[in-house]
Design goal:
The protein is an alpha/beta fold and 149 residues long. The protein is 46% helix and 12% strand. It has 6 helices and 4 strands, in the order E-H-E-H-H-H-H-E-H-E. Strands 2-3-1-4 form a 4-stranded parallel β-sheet, sandwiched between helices. The termini are far apart.
């Protein structure tokens, strides 16, 4: 089905624990989409500085790591402006294309949480897929549920 659509960018939107990464793995990756996360460089930095392991950041995502990611990735929105992560995404795409040489004709963004980000991607023609898990609240620690992301 995805091969029949003329998609360049698709944003997979949902709360923590909804299954955005799983949807990417099952539905988008097999059709040649590359996954981009606006905060990928920050997640790599978190691992490189020893504050979390690769598995914690990219696989298991325990509450301690989700809390760090929620709080520290949201902070630049206050330090700069609410569109900071949109500009980061655009520059990720440019860097992959111009510097790394990776074709970026099919991109799935899996860390969208704020309306301003969703609107920005819609404005450039991205398709938005909003997912919810029937047991979503069971997938996330109670102390993380109230975070605005």
């Amino acid at each position: 089905m995805l091969d029949q659509l003329d998609l360049k960018i698709c944003a997979i939107v949902g709360k923590s624990g909804a299954g955005k990464d799983s949807v990417y793995e099952l539905a988008f990756k097999p059709h040649g989409f590359i996954r981009l996360q606006m905060s990928l460089h920050y997640k790599i930095w978190l691992v490189a500085t020893g504050r979390a392991t690769w598995e914690e950041v990219f696989v298991t995502k325990p509450p301690r790591v989700r809390k760090i990611l929620q709080e520290e990735i949201t902070q630049p929105r206050y330090d700069h402006d609410e569109e900071i992560w949109v500009r980061v995404l655009y520059n990720w795409i440019r860097a992959l294309d111009e510097i790394v040489g990776v074709q970026t004709d099919r991109i799935a963004v899996t860390d969208m949480r704020f309306l301003v980000e969703i609107r920005a991607l819609k404005n450039i023609g991205a398709k938005i897929l909003n997912i919810e898990s029937y047991d979503q609240k069971d997938n996330i620690a109670p102390e993380l549920r109230s975070h605005r992301s």
